Amino acid sequence: MPPETQARISELVKAHKIMVFMKGSKLMPQCGFSNNVVQILNAVGAVYETCDVLSDYEIRQGIKEYSQWPTIPQVYINGEFLGGSDILIEMYQSGELQEKVAVAMAS
């Protein structure tokens, strides 16, 4: 990945307590998995930012290398990569996601 793409991704992750790289936006998700993540984060009252990977090919490819995770969406909380839709569902069901969101929003 080009260094400037890595720097852009790092800045996005650092600038926002909760950052989601997804297809579409939180107002208009463009795939079911991205929609799942938006619905879960909205359900827990998270304040988060999104980056539409469909509108930025370099980010779309670079985020997979950055996280060493092949699929999108990708969720970061306080700079930590959590995973995608399936992992967020599991974390939500166990209550772990609510804890992480509460800590992020309190810090």
TrEMBL record:
GO molecular function (one): 2 iron, 2 sulfur cluster binding
Pfam families recorded: Glutaredoxin
Protein family according to the UniProt entry: Belongs to the glutaredoxin family. Monothiol subfamily.
Database matches in InterPro entries: Glutaredoxin, GRX_PICOT-like, Monothiol_GRX, Monothiol_GRX-rel, Thioredoxin-like_sf
Cited NCBIfam families: Grx4 family monothiol glutaredoxin
Residues binding [2Fe-2S] cluster, per UniProt: C31
Glutaredoxin domain mapped to chain residues: 18-81
Protein name, as recorded: Glutaredoxin
Keywords per UniProt: 2Fe-2S, Iron, Iron-sulfur, Metal-binding, Redox-active center
